[in-house]
Amino acid sequence: MQDVSIAQVLSVAFMSMLPLIELKGAIPVGLSFGMPMWPTFWLCYVFSTLPALLVIKLLSPFMHCLKNLPSVRRIFEKFIDRSMQKSTVVERYGYWGVFIFVAIPLPGTGIWSGAVISSVLELQTTKAFLAIVAGNLVAGLVILSLSYAVI
User: pTM value?
Assistant: First the structure.
């Protein structure tokens, strides 16, 4: 194992909070930096989960504020539209659908999209958050397994 700098740890933590990257991209990066397997997993899991509750709770009020800013509104509407295109499993299976959607570690699925879909569909915050947290755990374990096998 090589020495890991605080800058590398912080970059992995920050990376795991970003939409599209989340823990699916941060875990392999952390392992490639030489970070230990389980601390890397838990760091990425915790930091990738943090934005979910904020997105679920604040998306609707935030979108109402953006109505007066057309250029910014278009960016968020595009992200929401993209997320909603993939929402059929959530609409069909409810909270289990949120879990499945987040648990499948593919591009465009994850906590950000799952939280957006939950917010737009007005699912109960606590249940949606628990489904997202559980799905993120499964996705993280799948990525950890695949990454550790490769790296």
Answer: 0.86
